[in-house]
Amino acid sequence: MGGLAALAAEAGHRVTGCDAGVYPPMSEQLRALGIDLIEGFGADQLALAPDVFVVGNVVSRARLPDGSPKFALMEAILDSGARYTSGPQWLSEHVLQGRHVVAVAGTHGKTTTTSMLAWILDCAGLQPGFLVGGVPLNFGVSARLGRVAPNSPFVIEADEYDTAFFDKRSKFVHYRPKTAVLNNLEFDHADIFPDLAAIERQFHHLLRTVPASGRVVVNDLEESLTRVLHQGCWSEVCRFGSAVSEFVAVGDAADFAVQAHGWEAVRVRWGLSGQHNQLNALAAIAAAEHLGVPVAQAAKALAAFHNVKRRMEVRGCVRGITVYDDFAHHPTAIRTTIDGLRHQLDREGRQQERIWAVFEPRSNTMKLGAMKAQLPWSLAHADHALCHAAGLGWDATAALAPMGARASVAHSIDEAVTQLVRQVQAGDHVLCMSNGGFGGIHQRLLDALAAAPQ
User: Fold this and answer.
1) Which of 415, 371, 372, 370 is nearest to 390 (CA)?
2) What is the dihedral of CA 367, 191, 326, 446, to 10 degrees?
3) Which numeric CATH code is attached to 2-82?
C-alpha cells in the first residue's frame, strides 16, 4: 500500500493515508515523498473527503472486545456511501492498463526477483515501472511509474494473499500479466487458505489471465507448480532450475554459468549468496528475455545488482559481531537464509564462525502455530537459535525442544538482547529475522554490545 501511494503521488494525485504502527523503511519513504500518514483508523478522517478511499487488506469488519469497530473509518465509509476500492483494483484501472505487466508470484523470493527484473529492464534502457514489497537498493524506492506508454513494461510483485475484506480473490488476479513468473509454491497464509490445494487453485486463476502471446516462467523443481500447470495453461511455458529446463545454472551461487535453451550464454558473478538467489536470477533472466533482453545483457546487469533492504542487510558490526536484518519468516525462507550465510562462510574459509538465528514468528501463519513443527528443520544449520515468543498461542520452548541446548526462548526484546549480549563473541553472525520491525532489536543489540564491558 505504501508503494501504491507512491505511484499515485507520482501520477499527480494528492495522497494521504492511515495505518497503525508503520515502521521503516516504508515509513521513511512515505515521509520523503511528502505523503501525510495518519496514525490509526479514526472515523474523523471521513471529513478529508477524498475522491476515493483505497482500502488495503489489513482492513476488516472486526470488532474490539468492547463491541466497537476495529476500523471505525471503514464503517464510516460504508455508512456514508463514500467511494472506495481495493489497492489491486485501483492499480489495475489506473496504472497497469495498457502496460506489458510482468507479475512475479511465489511463496518466497517475490521481492528479490521483482527487484532483479526491474533492474535488468532498467539497464536495458526499457525504463520499467515497478511495484515491489520492499526497497531495492539499486533504486532507493519501492515503486515508480517508469515510461508510461502502450506496452511499456511494469514489473509487479504478485501476492497470492486476498485482495480486501470485500474481495477474497488473490491480489494477483487483478494484474493480468503478459509475463508471469511462478517462483515456487508452498503452504502459507494459514489464516485464509485451508491447504496447499487452495493456493494452487489461486495460482491457476492467475494462469487463466495470461494471454496466448504471453510467457509463464516456472520453477521446474516445484511439484506444486507442476500440478498448477496440469490444470491448464494457454501460454508459452519457459522452465528454469532443473537439469532439463530451458534455463539452468551451473556452478556456485555467487559465480555461475547460465545455460539458456541448451547453450551456455554467460556467467553471473555477483555479491549474493544462496541457491534461492541463483534460482531467482534464472527466473528474472527468463522473464527479461520475453521482453527482448538478451541473456548476456541480463547477466551483466545482475553483476551490479545490490539486493533489497532487509534481505541479509548488515546493520552493523561491533566487537567483531555482525548483526543482520532479514525478512525471512516462513520456515523455508529461514532455512534458505541461514544456509546461504553458512555456504558463504564455508566458501571463504570461515567455518569456525558461528551463526545465531534470532527470529520472531510474526506472520499470521506462524502465530497460528501451523508450521511450528518445521522450526527445528529450518534452524538446523544455525549454531544457536533464539525465538522471541511474546504473544504466541503455542509453546515455542516445546517446539524447539529437538534442538536441545542450541535453542532458547525470550519473552521480550529486552530479554532477547540480554541473552545475546551475554553469549555472543567475536566472529559471530547474528541473523535477526522477521517480517515486521522486530521491536528495533537490531540497533538495540548493537547499542548494548557497544556499551557492554569488554
Assistant:
1) 415
2) -30
3) 3.40.50.720
Q: Which fold has domain 313-451?
A: Protein-Tyrosine Phosphatase; Chain A (3.90.190)
Which fold would CATH assign to domain 88-302?
UDP-N-acetylmuramoyl-L-alanine:D-glutamate ligase (3.40.1190)
Query: What is the rounded CA–CA span in Å between residue 249 and residue 268?
Result: 9
Report how far residue 173's alpha carbon sits from residue 160's, in angstroms, rounded to the nearest whole number: 8
**Band of pLDDT at residue 154, cut at 50, 70 and 90:** very high
For 184-242, write each residue's pLDDT tens digit: 998 877 778 889 999 999 999 999 999 999 999 999 999 999 999 999 999 999 999 99
The secondary structure of 14-36 as a DSSP string is --EEEESS--TTHHHHHHHTT-E
What residue spans define the domains of the chain?
2-82, 88-302, 313-451
What separation in angstroms does the CA of 94 have from each of 131, 143, 169, 173, 377? 14, 14, 19, 16, 44
Residues 358, 431 contacting (CB under 8 angstroms): yes
Residue type, 62: A
For residue range 229-279, what is the model confidence (pLDDT) as tens digits? Answer: 999 999 999 999 998 999 999 998 889 999 999 887 789 999 887 788 999
Provide the edge-to-edge strand list for the sheet that holds 407-410: 313-318, 321-326, 429-433, 355-359, 384-388, 407-410
